[in-house]
Specification:
The structure holds two protein chains of two kinds. By secondary structure, chain A is an alpha/beta fold. Among the domains of chain A are: 163 residues, Conserved hypothetical protein from pyrococcus furiosus pfu- 392566-001, ParB domain; 76 residues, no CATH class. Chain A contains 17 helices and eight strands. The longest helix of chain A has 31 residues. Chain A starts with 6 loop residues before the first helix and ends in a 9-residue tail after the last helix. Chain B is of the alpha/beta class. Chain B has one domain: pyruvate-formate lyase- activating enzyme (Alpha-Beta Horseshoe). In chain B, 31% of the residues lie in helices and 19% in strands. In chain B, the strands form three sheets. An eight-stranded mixed sheet of chain B has the order 4-5-8-9-10-11-12-16. Chain B starts with a helix and ends with a helix. Classes of the chains: A alpha/beta, B alpha/beta.
Chain lengths: 380, 356
C-alpha cells in the first residue's frame, strides 16, 4: 500500500510543543478585556489542534478581508507565547508572509478548555482529540508533580521561605483546576471514566506525526507509519479500524463515528455557557463589570459588528451636537431610519436645537454616517 | 424512482390508498391527521393526507423587507434533501414529506383563482400586497422531489399553458426534469434551480443533486423551450466565498444560455433565531458561526455591509448570465440594500410588478 500524503499538511504539522502548563499573559492583564496587541509570528507556537487541515481557504479569506478574529494567546511555563485558539490562522498568516498578528489574551486558568471549545464548532478529528487528551493528561500529572515539588521546597528552604511561599501560591493558582480541567476536557470529548476510547486516544497521541496525519485524514500509509504497527493489540486494531474501516472492526468504527456525531451535536452550544462560567463571573465582580462583560463578549463573538458600532458612535460623538439634541442610529446596522431626539425647556431652547438639527441635515455628516463601513470589508 | 427505497414508510389516509400514484406502493393506512400532529412523524416517512386549508397562499413575506409577491400553490410540505440551512424541518417540526392526496381540489381552486385574477375579480385580503402573475410550487417543499411519480407538474403546466399572462415556476434542488421535457408548456413555465457555490452545495446539501447536474438539467430544459430561474439562496459568507461563487457562476456561464434565464434571485443566509437550536440539533453545521444582526423582521442576517458586499460581488460575477430580459432581484431584502446594490428601491409593490 502506498500513500502520498499532502506534503504541505505534513510540513505544517508542528508537534514539537511539549505539553505543559499554560499561564495567562500577565503582562497584558490590563489589556486583555477585548483589546488587541501584536505579537511577532516568529515567536508564536500553537497548540497542535489543526491536524490535517489546509490553511489555503483561510489564507484566501485573510487576504481578502484581513484577519477577522484575533489569535488567543497564553504563555507556556517557559514564558513562550502559545496560540491556544487560531493555529490554522497562524499558519495561514505565515503562508501569506505576515510578520505579526493581532492577539487577545484571555484569562486563565482553563486554557485547554478554551482551546477545545473554540475548535469544537468546526469539529475535531480523532488526531486532534488525541492530542488535546494528551495535553489534559499531562497537565493533570504536572499539577501533582509540581505540588509535591513545591511542598518539599517550602519545607527544606527556610531561608527562602517568602519566595517559595510566593511561588507556591502562584503555582497553586496557576494549576488550580488542572484536574478539573482534565475532567472538563473529558466531558467535552464525551468520554466517560473507564471509557475504552481513552486508551485508544492515548495510543493515538503517541503516534508519529505521519500516522497522526493519517488518522486526521482517515487514511493510512503503512510504510510511513511503522510505529502504528508496533503498537500492541487492541489499540493498534482499533486505530487501524478507524483509519481503514476494516470489516472486522466495523463495530469499533461505528462507535467512533457515533461518538464523532454526538460531539458535533452537543458541542455547537457550549461557548456561551463556557464564557459565562469562566469569564463573565470574573468580569462581573469587577467595577462596572456587567458593561465590561457585555462589551468583551460582544467583541469576542462579534468583532465586525462591535467595531462598526464603536466607530459609528465615535463619529456621532465627534459631531459635538449641542445638549438637548441626540442622534441615535439603528443598532442592528440595518439603517432604515435614524432617530433624532430634541429635549428643550423653553422656546428659545427649541429654536436653537431645531437650527442645529437643520444644520445637521444640510451638511454631509448624515451621509458620512450612512457610508461609514468597516475597514476590513472592501467596498465593492 | 421507487418510493419504497427512498422512504422507510408510506403512510396514507384511507381515502387515498387506491389513488394513483400511491396505489403502486404498499402503504400503511393511517387515521386522518392534523398539521398539529406532523411533529409525530419521523424522518423517512412519506405521508399522503387530506389538506383542509387553502391550496393557494401568498409568499410568507417578511415585514419591512421587499417581497416579490410570489403566489404559492401549496401541494405538500417537507423535504428529505437534508440541507443544513433549511428551516423547513425545524419550522414544520418533522423531517417527513407530506403530500396532499386531495390535490384535485387544489387544482380546481387554482383555475378559479387564475380566472378571477385575469378578469380583475380577485381581491387580496386587506393589507396583503397585490399578487404577481407568478405562481410557484416550491416554497414548502421541493417542486420536483416526487414529481416524476405524482405528475403534478404535468397537470399544472396544462393549466398555465392556456392562461397567459400567468407563469408557473417549478423550484427545485433536484435534476429531475426529464419527465417534463416533451410537455406542451406554451412558454409559460419557468423551471428554477436553487444554486450555490460548490463548497456549500457539497457540504450542506447532502442529498440534493450535485450542482453540476442541476445546471445540466437546466440546460436540457432550456433546449425544450423552458425558461430557467436561478435562485442563489442562501448566499453564505464563509472563508473563500468570493472564489466559490465566482467559480460556479463561471461554470454556469459556460453551460447556460443567458437568453433562457428568466430571473435570478439573490438572498443571503438568514434564519429565525427561535429555530436555530432546532436546526442545530437535527443538522449541526458551522453556518451559524458568523456574525449576525437581528433584522427588522426579527430574522438573523449578516450585517448590512457584508450583505451589500456579497450582493455586489455576486452581481459582478453574474454579468455574463444576465440577458436584457433577465429579471434580477433580491429576495427579502431591505430598501436600503436595494439602494446600495441596484441604486433604487422598488418597494414591495414595485418588485411585485416586475412579475406582471
Amino acid at each position: 500500500m502506498s500513500q502520498n500524503f499532502d506534503s504541505p499538511l505534513l510540513s505544517s504539522l508542528d508537534l514539537s510543543l511539549e505539553p505543559g502548563p499554560l499561564k495567562p499573559w500577565l503582562e497584558y492583564e490590563g489589556d486583555w478585556r477585548g483589546n488587541l496587541f501584536d505579537l511577532p509570528l516568529s515567536d508564536l507556537k500553537a497548540l497542535p489542534l489543526s491536524i490535517g487541515r489546509s490553511n489555503e481557504l483561510i489564507a484566501e479569506s485573510i487576504e481578502s478581508f484581513g484577519l477577522l478574529y484575533p489569535l488567543w494567546v497564553a504563555k507556556s511555563h517557559n514564558n513562550e507565547p502559545i496560540v491556544i485558539s487560531g493555529g490554522l490562522r497562524l499558519s495561514a498568516l505565515r503562508l501569506l508572509g505576515h510578520k505579526t498578528a493581532p492577539c487577545l489574551a484571555p484569562p486563565g486558568p482553563n486554557f485547554l478548555t478554551t482551546a477545545l471549545i473554540s475548535n469544537l464548532s468546526r469539529g475535531l478529528n480523532p488526531a486532534e482529540m488525541a492530542v488535546i487528551w494528551l495535553w489534559a493528561k499531562k497537565l493533570a500529572a504536572y499539577n501533582c508533580d509540581n505540588d509535591s515539588k513545591n511542598n518539599s521546597e517550602l519545607n527544606s528552604d527556610l531561608n527562602g521561605q517568602s519566595k517559595s511561599a510566593l511561588n507556591s501560591k502562584n503555582n497553586s493558582e496557576l494549576n488550580s483546576g488542572k484536574d478539573s480541567e482534565k475532567q472538563e476536557v473529558q466531558n467535552l470529548l464525551g468520554l466517560k471514566p473507564g471509557d475504552r476510547r481513552l486508551s485508544w486516544l492515548e495510543a493515538a497521541a503517541a503516534l508519529p506525526k505521519e500516522a497522526l496525519l493519517a488518522l486526521a485524514l482517515g487514511r493510512l500509509d503503512l510504510e510511513n507509519a511503522p510505529e502504528l504497527m508496533a503498537l500492541s493489540s487492541p489499540e493498534r486494531d482499533i486505530a487501524l479500524s478507524l483509519i481503514l474501516g476494516t470489516k472486522a472492526s466495523r463495530q469499533n468504527r461505528r462507535q467512533w463515528l457515533g461518538w464523532l456525531g454526538d460531539l458535533k451535536r452537543i458541542n455547537n452550544a457550549p461557548l456561551d455557557s463556557f464564557l459565562t462560567k469562566n469569564i463573565v463571573s470574573d468580569l462581573t465582580s469587577a467595577e462596572g463589570g456587567e458593561k465590561k462583560t457585555h462589551d468583551y463578549l460582544q467583541k469576542l463573538r462579534f468583532p465586525f459588528v462591535s467595531e462598526l458600532r464603536d466607530r459609528r458612535q465615535k463619529f456621532i460623538d465627534s459631531l459635538n451636537l449641542p445638549n438637548g439634541l441626540k442622534l441615535t442610529l439603528d443598532n442592528q446596522l440595518e439603517d432604515e431610519k435614524y432617530d433624532l431626539y430634541i429635549s428643550f425647556s423653553d422656546a428659545g431652547d427649541l429654536k436653537r436645537l431645531v437650527e442645529a438639527a437643520l444644520e445637521l441635515a444640510q451638511g454631509d455628516n448624515l451621509k458620512d454616517i450612512l457610508e461609514l463601513s468597516h475597514p476590513l470589508v472592501p467596498q465593492g | 424512482m421507487d418510493l419504497t427505497s427512498r422512504f422507510s414508510r408510506l403512510l396514507t389516509e384511507e381515502e387515498f390508498i387506491d389513488s394513483p400514484p400511491w396505489s403502486k406502493w404498499p402503504a400503511q393506512v393511517i387515521a386522518p391527521i392534523k398539521p398539529s400532529q406532523y411533529g409525530d412523524l419521523m424522518a423517512g416517512d412519506l405521508v399522503v393526507t387530506k389538506h383542509q386549508g387553502s391550496f393557494l397562499r401568498p409568499c410568507p413575506a417578511t415585514p419591512r423587507y421587499n417581497c416579490c409577491g410570489l403566489n404559492i400553490f401549496h401541494f405538500g410540505q417537507g423535504c428529505d434533501l437534508g440541507c443544513s440551512y433549511c428551516i423547513l424541518s425545524a419550522y414544520l417540526g418533522t423531517e417527513a414529506v407530506i403530500v396532499f392526496g386531495n390535490i384535485s381540489d387544489g387544482l380546481e381552486a387554482l383555475k378559479t383563482r387564475l380566472d378571477q385574477m385575469k378578469l380583475g375579480l380577485y381581491q387580496p385580503l386587506s393589507g396583503a400586497p397585490e399578487p404577481s402573475y407568478r405562481f410557484c410550487t416550491g416554497e414548502f417543499t421541493d417542486s420536483l422531489l416526487l414529481d416524476s411519480q405524482t405528475k403534478l407538474s404535468e397537470k399544472l403546466i396544462a393549466i398555465f399553458r392556456d392562461r397567459p399572462p400567468f407563469i408557473l415556476e417549478l423550484k427545485t434542488k433536484t435534476a429531475e426534469v426529464d419527465h417534463l421535457l416533451n410537455l406542451d408548456h406554451g412558454g409559460r413555465v419557468v423551471i428554477s434551480f436553487s444554486v450555490n457555490s460548490l463548497f456549500i452545495s457539497q457540504n450542506f446539501e447532502p442529498k440534493a443533486a450535485p450542482i453540476i447536474d442541476r445546471l445540466k438539467a437546466a440546460e436540457k430544459a432550456s433546449k425544450y423551450g423552458y425558461k430557467i430561474g436561478l435562485h442563489f439562496d442562501p448566499i453564505v459568507f464563509y472563508p473563500g466565498w468570493e472564489r466559490g461563487y465566482e467559480d460556479i457562476i463561471s461554470q454556469m456561464a459556460q453551460i447556460l444560455d443567458s437568453k433562457a434565464i428568466a430571473f435570478i434571485s439573490l438572498g443571503c443566509f438568514r434564519y429565525l433565531p427561535a429555530l436555530k437550536p432546532v436546526m442545530l440539533k437535527t443538522r449541526p453545521s458551522p453556518l451559524f458561526n458568523a456574525e449576525f444582526i437581528r433584522g427588522g423582521d426579527g430574522k438573523m442576517r449578516y450585517p448590512r455591509p457584508i450583505r451589500r458586499l456579497m450582493y455586489r460581488r455576486v452581481l459582478e460575477f453574474l454579468k455574463p448570465l444576465i440577458h436584457p430580459t433577465t429579471k434580477v432581484y433580491l429576495c427579502m431584502e431591505s430598501g436600503r440594500i436595494w439602494q446600495e446594490v441596484f441604486g433604487f428601491d422598488p418597494g414591495t409593490s414595485g418588485l411585485t410588478s416586475m412579475f406582471k
